[in-house]
Amino acid sequence: MTQGALEQALRPMGDGPLVEAMRYAVRGGKGLRGFLVMESARLHGVGVEQAVWPAASIEAMHAYSLVHDDLPCMDDDALRRGQPTVHVKWDEAAAVLAGDALQTLAFDLLARPEVGPSGVRVQLVANMARAAGAQGMVRGQALDIAAETADAPLTLEQITALQAAKTGALIGWSAEAGAVLGGINPGPMRHYAGALGLAFQIADDILDVTGDAAVAGKALRKDAAAGKATFVSLLGLDGAKARAAQLVDEACAALESYGARAETLKDAARFVIARRN
Predict the structure, then answer these.
(1) What pTM was estimated for this model as a whole?
(2) pLDDT in tens, 213-268
(3) What is the pLDDT of residues 132-156, one digit of tens each?
(4) Which of 266, 272, 273 is nearest to 252 (CA)?
(5) First vs last Cα of the chain: how many Å apart?
(6) Angle between helices 137-148 and 48-69 (to 10 degrees)
(7) Cα–Cα distance between 188 and 169 in angstroms, integer?
(8) How far is CA 225 from CA 209, 221, 236, 239, in A?
């Protein structure tokens, strides 16, 4: 359904190279962030027709972040979701422009009247701007780039803060969106998302060491080759697995007040450390 909303939003833009690159960038992937929006909306009594646009919005924002992160000036990756990255399939200019367009599309989708009253839309837009910008994801990316040339590897505290911004901020927005749509205190969802986002990144670090690139759909073991600190390098493989499992327990505990209605979100937390890509 989220993918359908993205296609609907892209359709009026035509079929030129820019839109083709945008469509290409949003295809595939786990769809975790959009799923979190839809499921948290269901948990807070918000209808699908209202929630689908914020779900599509976060997937557009996430896709933009991946397109730019893959560029040669950033992580310089040639493979994403099992396909050539956008700058490889087209060129760097096309990737920059497609990413820019996906970022602005994310805010356009949040402004749609179907999302709800103007106050709700403004809150979602403001929260997105903070989560995606210099207080959130982009800050995490900047810290990650700086770590590549730092005199010493990051400490556990530093890498936790980095990943809370780079990966956790958009996951946090996704999990809280349903409560915002429903006009309900997002506190429990914030606690859930904080633990979930960190578990997700630790699982990524574990996959980078133990995974299969063909299954993961992207290059692996780049961090180790670059000498970058990861949760695995700092905690050891067994320690990282134990910490991820502990975080999943914390995420599930944050949802206890919802009872059995939150079981799907608990399953999502368990999934992030059991996945193979």
Answers:
(1) 0.93
(2) 666 666 666 666 666 789 999 999 999 999 999 999 999 999 999 999 999 999 99
(3) 999 999 999 999 999 888 888 899 9
(4) 266
(5) 22
(6) 20
(7) 16
(8) 11, 6, 16, 21
